[in-house]
Design a protein that fits this description.
This protein has 497 residues and is of the alpha/beta class. The chain has 2 domains: 2-391, Alpha-Beta Barrel (TIM Barrel); 409-496, Immunoglobulin-like (Sandwich). It is built from 15 helices and 14 strands. The protein has helices at 2-29, 41-45, 51-56, 81-86, 91-100, 121-131, 168-178, 188-197, 214-221, 228-245, 260-263, 265-274, 341-353, 372-388, 477-482, and strands at 58-62, 135-141, 201-207, 249-253, 283-284, 316-321, 356-362, 409-413, 420-427, 436-439, 452-454, 460-466, 469-473, 489-496. Strands 5-4-3-2-1-7-6 form a 7-stranded parallel sheet. Strands 8-9-14-11-12-13-10 form a 7-stranded antiparallel sheet. Strand 6 (316-321), helix 13 and strand 7 form a beta-alpha-beta unit. It starts with a helix and ends with a strand. Mean pLDDT is 90; it is low at 1-32 and 177-198. The structure holds 2-acetamido-2-deoxy-beta-D-glucopyranose (6 copies). One 2-acetamido-2-deoxy-beta-D-glucopyranose is lined by residues 224, 258-259, 262, 290. GO terms for molecular function: alpha-L-fucosidase activity. Residues 1-22 form the signal peptide. One of its GO terms (biological process) is fucose metabolic process.
Length: 497
């Protein structure tokens, strides 16, 4: 009861923020006329992504579902457990079930043990805020069909009816607001400030398909000429999710077996962009049918762990994992399966230099714990960003993405102010032998007034032109270490336009 009334209160507040925010967005974009989007790609693709998304750069992805109970993966992703076991009959999965569970044990039987007794959304959101991430995307429903909210389209196969007995999507939203109120006083003004402040935004991952839903299976058997599942399940459920929780992101997946026409995706998106309560602020991805990925939608994800290493002509996102082999938690992960903090920073830097956002996945366990190894990686990133964030947030790709000659140096740039701007050169490997870095791409872009700083270090550093490069002498390494500057080092170079 308590939770439910909190939810209702929150929904009321969210409506208020959405209206206020819509007005702010309107003002800042100086939008004069409101034109409606048509349910076709030409029109939908012409929508500008709300600015907040590109500025944010970093999000956290959460895969949490019934698969977090068996939590088993051997190179195949753990959240695919049901289908790997039941449909693909992969031997180690079949044996895992045979060896550990009674005959006749079903996947649905795992839901009872999806207990989340240590789930504390405050702790999750605090960790995400400390990581420097600006948005969170949670699996509201994965391909198994189990919803993390009490959807009326998923009776008895949702987090309130079985397992957690909690509305996880609501709690996460509730905390988005509550995080920034240290007194735990839940007031409209405070919530509004939080929304306007845009400290952390909230998105929902949603799988269009459900492996074993009989309506879906029957539609597939008809080669998708029949559309009962879309009409009675997918679209009503998506609309319920949007109306109830007003997400900032709708991150679609599970699209690949049928065309966008089957999924009615253009009709849904036109509704989302025109008439939904999040029409002004929402962003979406590109997974709306077997014929849309990397072609249509909001930002492009192209494929899992997409990180092309070169500038892209559209806004894109690198959805990747800290446990390199899986999205859902698995109990049998090895230390070497996790990205190190240094590798994570490299992934972030390369992504942002090439115009992407990064969506970093963590898989909480069935108890609701984000294992310390994930927490450490995220906190290391947050610490790095507290010194180097100027080169990341709200940055733009520069003329060059990586240095033409020196390896492992990546560039971004800041805004132009009085005909000058800052170029950021992020050095991923420390030049231990020389203590200098040669920036070849910057040759010809500096002038007599150029100053160079290492972010997080108080004094400017020495530089000179050598052999068609800007050669920067770094401060004494011990002085950098003393300030906790590690993992990667950012040079901030002030150049004329
Ligand atoms: C959740 O975590 C926060 C922060 O650590 C703590 O203050 C709060 O008491 C916890 N809530 C529960 C129900 O344990
Ligand atoms: C597709 O969306 C349109 C607009 O909402 C609706 O009229 C139509 O019935 C939908 N078709 C299916 C199969 O859901
Ligand atoms: C996409 O799905 C449709 C069914 O909606 C199917 O007819 C078509 O062959 C699929 N295309 C590809 C490239 O798989
Ligand atoms: C970096 O830049 C060089 C020259 O511009 C290019 O050849 C190289 O492929 C780029 N990418 C990486 C990852 O080094
Ligand atoms: C450098 O700054 C000085 C003082 O502001 C100014 O007079 C001079 O024109 C600047 N030089 C260049 C190349 O912009
Ligand atoms: C000058 O740069 C070239 C690459 O362009 C390099 O091969 C050469 O060793 C450099 N010379 C010095 C003195 O650094």
């Amino acid at each position: 009861m308590k939770l439910r009334s909190a939810c209702k209160f929150l929904h009321l507040l969210t409506i208020i923020f959405t209206v206020i925010e819509a007005q702010l967005v309107d003002k800042s974009n100086k939008r004069k006329e409101i034109s409606r989007f048509e349910p076709n790609w030409e029109s939908l693709d012409s929508r500008e992504l709300p600015k907040w998304y590109d500025e944010s750069k970093i999000g956290i992805f959460i895969h949490w579902g019934v698969y977090s109970v068996p939590a088993f993966g051997t190179g195949l992703s753990a959240e695919w457990f049901w289908t790997i076991w039941r449909s693909w009959n992969v031997e180690d999965h079949v044996n895992f079930m045979k060896d550990n569970f009674k005959p006749g044990f079903t996947y649905q039987d795992f839901a009872r043990d999806f207990t989340g007794e240590h789930f504390n959304a405050t702790e999750w959101v605090q960790l995400f805020a400390e990581s420097g991430a600006k948005y969170v995307v949670i699996t509201s429903k994965h391909h198994e069909g189990y919803t993390l909210w009490p959807s009326k389209y998923s009776f008895s196969w949702n987090s309130v009816d079985v397992g957690l007995h909690r509305d996880i999507i609501c709690e996460a939203f509730y905390l988005e607001v509550y995080l920034f109120n240290s007194d735990n006083v839940f007031s409209a003004e405070l919530s509004e400030a939080c929304r306007v402040d845009n400290r952390i935004r909230f998105g929902v991952y949603h799988s269009l398909l459900e492996w074993y839903n009989p309506m879906y299976v029957s539609d597939r058997d008809s080669e998708f000429t029949q559309r009962e599942f879309v009409e009675k399940k997918t679209i009503p459920e998506l609309k319920e999710l949007v109306m109830k929780y007003k997400p900032d992101i709708v991150w679609s997946d599970g699209e690949w077996e049928a065309s966008y026409e089957y999924w009615n995706a253009t009709e849904f998106l036109a509704w989302l962009y025109n008439d939904s309560p999040v029409s002004e602020i929402v962003v979406t991805n590109d997974r709306w049918g077997n014929d849309t990925m990397c072609l249509h939608g909001g930002f492009f994800t192209c494929h899992d762990r997409f990180n092309p290493g070169v500038l892209q002509p559209y806004k894109w996102e690198n959805a990747m994992t800290i446990d390199k082999l899986t999205w859902g938690h698995r109990n049998n992960a090895k230390l070497q399966d996790f990205l190190t903090s240094k590798e994570l920073i490299k992934e972030l830097v390369v992504t942002v230099s090439c115009g992407g956002n990064i969506l970093i996945n963590v898989g909480p366990d069935k108890f609701g714990i984000i294992q310390p190894i994930f927490a450490e990686r995220l906190r290391d990133m947050g610490k790095w960003l507290s010194a180097n964030g100027e080169a990341i947030y709200e940055s733009q790709p520069w003329l060059y993405q990586n240095d033409t000659i020196t390896p492992d140096v990546w560039y971004t740039q800041g805004a132009s102010i009085n005909l000058r701007r800052d170029v950021f050169a992020i050095v991923l490997d420390y030049p231990y032998d020389t203590n200098t870095v040669e920036l070849y791409s910057l040759f010809g872009y500096t002038d007599e007034n150029t100053t160079i700083h290492v972010l997080g270090y108080p004094e400017s550093v020495q530089w000179r032109i050598v052999n068609e490069s800007v050669q920067v002498t770094l401060p004494n390494k011990a002085q950098l270490d003393k300030r906790g500057l590690n993992l990667a080092w950012t040079l901030k170079i002030n150049v004329p336009e």
